[in-house]
Write a structure and sequence with these properties.
RNaseA_AS; membrane; transmembrane; nuclease; hydrolase; P-30 Protein; elongated; 8 strands; about 30% helix
Length: about 180
């Protein structure tokens, strides 16, 4: 048999059988449409997966979010070495390779954000210096290894002002301790 173009639940054979009848290939309108239904199901699944991934794409980490994740933390209360080893891993800086160094600014996120506004003084370009000093923990990779799981850090605690880069009134890059 040859087939006419089909719509859902309406496929028909165009040739007649030996008795001059068109064969009825339908079983409750489903069997002859199974391949089409499967194709539609696959298409619907694909669209659902695509739409499901859109929120993930939209939730990509912002520059300010990355700055906060990598540099802003509550007071540690731990030994600096233990703190660095724990936080560098917890904050995702040892996932692919060991980040060579990182500075944690201990304080409220709002106080750190304020450096880009009334809590800081414009330095140059888009850099701002904090008006007040923050407790800092500087973590540096030791000679143990440069790839996970061999990321081992030493830490140093100090209290200093900081310089950060700001975009749209928010910190996006830690430049240095002052």
């Amino acid at each position: 048999s040859t087939w006419e173009p089909c719509l859902l639940f309406s496929c028909k054979a165009t040739e007649k059988n030996q008795k001059g009848e068109r064969p009825n290939l339908r079983v409750s309108g489903v069997v002859d449409t199974m391949p089409r239904m499967l194709a539609y199901s696959v298409l619907v699944l694909f669209v659902a997966l695509l739409l499901g991934s859109l929120p993930t794409l939209a939730q990509r980490e912002t520059r300010h979010g990355k700055f906060q994740r990598q540099h802003v933390a509550a007071n540690s209360g731990l030994d600096a070495r233990l703190y660095c080893n724990l936080m560098m891993q917890r904050r995702g800086m040892t996932n692919i390779k060991c980040k060579p160094s990182n500075t944690f600014i201990h304080g409220e996120a709002t106080a750190v954000d304020a450096i880009c506004n009334n809590g800081g003084i414009h330095s140059s370009d888009n850099y701002y210096d904090s008006n007040s000093a923050f407790e800092l923990t500087v973590c540096r990779l030791t000679g143990g290894g440069t790839a996970p799981p061999n990321c081992n850090y030493r830490g140093r605690v100090s209290t200093q002002q900081v310089r950060v880069a700001c975009v749209n009134g928010l910190p996006v890059h830690f430049k240095q301790a002052l």
